Protein: N-acetylmuramoyl-L-alanine amidase
Amino acid sequence: MQTKSLFISAGHSASDPGAVGNGYTEAAIVLEFRDYLAEALRARGIEFSKDGGRGENLPLSRAWRMAADHDIAVEFHCNAFSRPSATGVETLSHPEHMELGRAICTAISDTLGIVNRGAKGEGSGQHSRLAFVSSGGGIIVELFFISNPDDVAKYQRWKLQLAEVLADLLAEEVRNA
Ligand SMILES: [Zn+2]
Structure:
């Protein structure tokens, strides 16, 4: 029995490709991952909304409004930094979603074998879509550093497994009373 509504979002699109690194755009990674996660959620019978059809990403102004209409809203991004050694996963959210943020960070860190940078507040780090948190009450997930070749390689190796792991975690979250 599902007790909470769920929204999943890709943070970028062809018109707003985000960071670039190691042969990938952030848009290509997060659109693909959102769609993998959608398939894994459907396989578990979870109801959810997402920010556009396969390969499509609605503008932030639509995404944060949709986020605000759901109990749980998660948007995927990649981190980037000038030093290629910067590594790891982190989330940004309001305090009430820190616990889920920590669980998401642990799941991603364990699955990809990268550093767990932890669940942080909306003011942390370098991010361009904070309205998703500040106005939408959502959780921004910075999956890994697109500027780090090792992070990118681990993600590409484990991305399908990661979609299954996060689908399990989110399914449990939305079924919890
Ligand atoms: Zn981004």
